[in-house]
Structure prediction request, 315 residues.
Amino acid sequence: MKTPSAPVPPSLRSRRCASIAGAITLVARCYSPGDADSTGSASQAINGTVTFPNNSGCNADQQQRVRDVMQVVRTAVVNDPSALTACLRDAVTSPSWGHSAEHIVSRLLQNLPTEVQCDNSNPGRTYGQDNWINAHAPLSIADERIVFDRTFLMDATNTTARLGSVLLHEVMHNKGDTHTFDTEYRHSVNEQVERCFRDITGDQTFDLARRSTMPTESELQTFGSDGVDEPYAIACPTSAPMAGQSIATTTTIFSTNGVISQGQLQRLQVRCRAANGSTVTTAGTAGSGGTLATDDCPQGEVVVGVRGYADANHV
Ligand SMILES: [Zn+2]
Prediction:
């Protein structure tokens, strides 16, 4: 925190936004291991077998290749889905339709065989069902059906783990997850499953944002009056969202719905409430003097913004 050397005008010169509200929401939506939506009882349910229809288009070598791929999937996911689940829990997925990592894995591990066909992709065809590379699969069906491109499937530079990751990407299409082909693509459920599988099998390190490495706060650009001093910041400690503030100004008015301060700002304190607690503590002090007036949000709510103003003289 930088303490101003002179009274600071009551302008809102810097606003900090922490992802506290989102974190609280996520906590509220977490499933406990005993919930029906967790993968616990379903962890052994996936069939993990592959079938070929009579007209699959896969020759004997291609069928064996697919079986080898499914064996990798069975080893890395079916027998113990904990590594995939942990990776997905740390992923930043959009869009996820609110589905937790456990929910995604539970759908992936439904007790179904996976039917595989082989074809030649042709991305030059008219956009639509025929415009695909590597593999494709029908969206939102009751069973599991995917089509591999023969060249992609038999390319020796593609590891079985790589092919397995594509298989899971396509199976997630069967389960209803889909994506666009723009910047959101990499963050879709399909791609996150694909990348997590490559990561847990050692094929390729996960290369997207992780929840655990995201900054706890972001600072927006400064706006408003800025003629006296550099902006300063007071931050609440980790796991204690901002609940309110205490302000002393040259004139303080107590309104019916809180504290409205007028005049030049003399002192500012941030009020922080421990998560799931009722205790509110003060974090830091900027400035000095005056009589502090405090206004806190009700328990269960957090501050999401502060409004202020300055006059033409920056005060
Ligand atoms: Zn896809």
Remarks:
- Residues 1-46 have pLDDT under 50 and may be disordered.
